[in-house]
Amino acid sequence: MVTAIVLVCAERGRVNEVAQALLEINGVSEVYSVGGRFDLVAILRVASNEKLAEVVTEHLQKVPDIRQTETLIAFKALSRHDLESMFSIGL
User: Which segments of the chain are extended strands (E)?
Assistant: First the structure.
């Protein structure tokens, strides 16, 4: 499983429409509206790097009203649950 985080700048007033369009793309598992330099954060989970390239270049780039994106590929995923199980002594 390949996970990527895509940071998205949307056109002014179009954040909700862009978020909905992103959610319709196969491979986009979650979309968050955020504050800061970017408007949205999309979490992509796909089977391979080739599939990731397809989602980004053939689908994300075709969503209207996206001004800019930055794609971050995750090397390793950690969560609070993972950390708690690593340090658990079985109590």
Answer: 2-10, 28-33, 40-46, 66-73
Residue in 62, 63, 59, 66 with CA at minimum distance from that of residue 44: 59
Question: Alpha-carbon Rg of the chain, whole angstroms?
Answer: 15
The pLDDT tens digits for 38-83 are 999 999 999 999 999 999 999 999 999 999 999 999 998 877 765 5
The answer to whether the Cα torsion of 77, 10, 59, 19 is positive or negative is: positive
| Domains along the sequence of the chain with CATH | 2-87 (3.30.70.920)
Closest listed residue to residue 21, CA positions, set 72, 61, 70, 69: 61
Question: How much is the pTM?
Answer: 0.85
Nearest 10 degrees: Cα torsion 62, 74, 45, 65: -20
**CB-based burial of residue 47 (10 Å sphere; 0-12 exposed, 13-18 middle, 19+ buried)?**
exposed
Are the beta carbons of 41 and 6 closer than 8 angstroms?
yes
